[in-house]
Design goal:
By secondary structure, the protein is α+β, with helices and mostly antiparallel strands. The protein has 3 domains: 15-124, Carboxypeptidase-like, regulatory domain (Immunoglobulin-like); 149-250, no CATH class; 259-387, Glutaredoxin, CATH 3.40.30.10. The protein is built from 9 helices and 17 strands. The termini are far apart.
């Protein structure tokens, strides 16, 4: 097994006044919407650079030069919530991650020697969390370095066990913080502790729920940020990978979560129906075969609805009014109707692996898939077996 040293992950309202330790609030002017200041002892006359991190690489945002006491100040404009880093001159590794939000006024005090491991950050909603995390991660990173030095004298299992024990303290802190405050911007960094970086075998599946809560909170707080879309896609990919892992290792597959909007605009989750047998029906108002199958679904629903059975209809419609009209016209009386109105562009196609509709997936009370493509007589026969009718 090959280990690599893990460094601090980059995913992508106060200021010290000059010559005093008193704190004052800055009034932004000329389009500026963030400020970073503080004192880094040992960084006298150094230039501090703020850089945005993107898929295209680093982008220069602003800079400021420290005075003879190491006191610096950077004021500028950012387009929105994002992943940034503060770098001191060209000194190797003197970099810290910053999850800036417009109107942030960040205060950073540190020693040059420990700038990248032990900065004291305040003035923002994420400053305290960052300070604690950086300290804990620094301890882990140092211990990891020592572990690598003696790796040649240890077995693979011993090395893995000690590595995981070291990492556990960092992960526990990160998970606890994400649970307590899902919308905290610094969760961009903390989320690495929730991902299955070592594979799914020993990965706590409850971390998926933590990641989902972060994605949902970011969607509400930062709906227009590309990072929100990135973390939502990451959650989707992890869930897809975990479901495949279950299928490969046990032959049983838990139906991937579906969380889409009802005709009334409220989110409805497939997991909210646990405890019932659920027929997931992928259909659309424009699909002739789907509409012809609907009377049979209505009959089956009425026959089994009192036996812990329901239907979860996922529409591949694009027109909301056509979707609603078809529900009413075809008498689809069950309450579980959802759609993202993306037609064939919906992620559900890849998530559930189908290329035509109607397509059905039958799941049991624990959410495990027990049948696919069931329609007409084959669906009815399966339900008779389950409910002994």
């Amino acid at each position: 097994m090959i280990f690599r040293l893990i460094s601090i992950p980059f995913l992508t309202l106060l200021l010290f006044s000059c010559g005093s330790d008193e704190i004052e609030t800055i009034e932004f002017e000329n389009g500026n919407n963030f400020a970073i200041s503080g004192t880094v002892t040992g960084a006298e006359n150094q230039t501090f650079y703020l850089e945005a991190l993107s898929q295209e690489g680093k982008i220069d945002v602003a800079n400021g030069k420290a005075d003879e006491n190491g006191r610096f100040e950077i004021i500028g404009e950012i387009p929105g919530f994002g992943m940034y880093q503060l770098r001191i001159g060209d000194v190797k590794d003197k970099i810290v991650p910053l999850t800036l939000v417009p109107d942030d006024q960040v205060v950073i005090n540190a020693e040059m020697a420990t700038f990248e491991t032990n900065p004291q950050v305040s003035g923002t909603s994420w400053g305290k969390v960052m300070t604690e995390y950086m300290s804990k991660f620094s301890i882990f990173h140092s211990a990891q370095t020592e572990l690598m030095k003696k790796s040649s004298t240890m077995s693979e299992s011993e090395l893995m066990a000690e590595y995981m024990a070291l990492k556990e303290k960092v992960d526990e802190f990160a998970i606890a913080q994400m649970k307590a405050d899902p919308g905290n911007p610094f969760n961009l960094v903390l989320s690495s502790s929730a991902t299955p970086s070592m594979g799914f075998e020993n990965w706590p599946v409850e971390n998926l729920d933590v990641m989902k809560s972060v994605a949902e909170a970011f969607t509400k707080k930062f709906p227009n940020s590309p990072l929100t879309a990135n973390i939502s896609n990451q959650v989707y990919q992890i869930e897809l990978g975990y479901d495949q892992y279950l299928l490969d290792t046990s032959g049983e597959r838990v139906a991937p979560e579906i969380a889409l909007k009802t005709p009334e605009g409220k989110e409805l989750r497939l997991s909210s129906l646990r405890g019932k047998y659920v027929l997931i029906d992928f259909w659309a108002s424009w699909c002739g075969p789907c509409r012809r199958e609907n009377p049979n679904l209505v009959r089956i629903y009425n026959e089994y609805k009192d036996n812990d059975f329901t239907i979860f209809s996922v529409s591949l419609d694009k027109n909301a009014e056509a979707w609603k009209e078809a529900i009413e016209k075809d008498g689809l009386i069950w309450p579980n109707h959802v759609s993202d109105l993306l037609q064939w562009k919906t992620p559900m196609v890849q998530l559930y692996g189908f290329n035509s509709i109607p397509h059905t997936v039958l799941i049991d009370k624990e959410g495990k898939i027990i049948g696919t493509g069931l329609r007409g007589e084959t669906l009815e026969q399966k339900l008779k077996e389950i409910f002994k009718k």
